[in-house]
Design a protein that fits this description.
GO molecular function: oxidoreductase activity
Helix content: 40-55%
CATH class: Alpha Beta
Order of helices and strands: EEHEHEHEHEHEHHHEH
Number of helices: 9
Keywords: Oxidoreductase
Largest sheet: 8 strands, mixed
Protein name: SDR family oxidoreductase
InterPro entries: NAD(P)-bd_dom_sf (IPR036291), SDR_DHRS6-like (IPR051122), SDR_fam (IPR002347)
CATH superfamily: NAD(P)-binding Rossmann-like Domain
Family: Belongs to the short-chain dehydrogenases/reductases (SDR) family.
Shape: globular
Structural class: alpha/beta
Radius of gyration: 19 Å
């Protein structure tokens, strides 16, 4: 593990800790919260999107904020403790205003398959560590290190798979269900301390990971189907998600706690109609 810093020691400013900050949703959120409410950014990433991470860092700097990148697998308790210690050295105590869990690393397949897509125990453990358990690991480490700022916000990210069935994504749905329960229980434990813990559910957005998985033809079909499915006639954008996170980080959203906030734009409302009236 390693990190690179734009400064020495704590500066008295408030920070956003973002897991998965190098690209996609995490990078967009990092750039947005640097502008408003004006948070410095400590981003954790696995190093897969180095160019995107560098662009994010430069954008945060252009907003007048500091940026710290920590390269590590954020899914383990050990990495959470090491990452929080690195952040503590840079930011100082009670400085983390926003924590965003935006890492992904799920296995797809079938539970009872006898083929290569079988969801065996190693894949199950890895997916739950990445998509769910790591939220708890980092929350525990932040509290133990006394890094949460007054009225801090902890935010997990969710998708609409809990409302429908998509072949071979059962393990993703299960891990996200666990994440939702963690959010509710952490909200109960951290609420009396003044902190807020929520889950933001949004629909499909175009990310580098999505472009890596799907061919251009498949992506074109994806966009076409979303234009038919979403009431707005288009896909949600990364910028829209990121700007809403800035709202959740502000005082006007202080009463949200233990909530799964629906930001899907009505994505699943028309599914049955599309099946019966294609």
């Amino acid at each position: 593990m390693g990190s690179t810093s734009d400064g020495d020691g704590a500066s008295g400013s408030q920070w956003a800790l973002i897991l998965g900050a190098s690209s996609g949703t995490g990078a967009a959120i990092a750039e947005a919260v640097a502008r408003r409410p004006g948070l410095d950014v400590f981003g954790v990433h696995r190093g897969r999107y180095a160019e995107s991470a560098a662009r994010m860092k430069e954008t945060v700097r252009e907003a007048g904020r500091r940026a710290e990148l920590w390269q590590a697998d954020a899914s383990t308790p050990e990495s959470a403790e090491a990452g929080v210690e690195a952040l503590r050295r840079v930011a100082g105590p009670r400085s983390v205003k926003l924590f965003v869990h935006s890492i992904a690393g799920a296995s797809v397949g079938h539970f009872l398959s006898q083929g290569e897509d079988r969801l065996h125990s190693r894949r199950i453990r890895r997916t739950f560590d990445t998509m769910a358990h790591s939220f708890v690991y980092w929350a525990q480490a932040l509290v133990a290190a006394d890094l949460l700022a007054p009225e801090a916000r902890l935010l997990g990210l969710q998708n609409p798979l809990d409302e429908t069935h998509l072949s071979n994504t059962g393990l993703i749905s299960a891990s996200k269900a666990a994440l939702e329960m963690y959010v509710r229980y952490l909200a109960m434990e951290l609420g009396p301390l003044g902190h807020r813990v929520n889950l933001l559910k949004f629909g499909t957005v175009m990310t580098p990971a999505l472009r890596h998985v799907y061919s251009p033809e498949a992506l074109a079909r994806l966009e076409t189907m979303h234009s038919r499915m979403n009431p707005a006639g288009r896909m949600c954008t990364l910028d829209e998600v990121a700007r809403f996170v800035t709202v959740l980080a502000g005082e006007d959203a202080a009463w949200f706690n233990g909530a799964t906030i629906d930001f899907t734009g009505g994505m699943t409302l028309k599914l049955l109609d599309l099946v019966l009236n294609p």
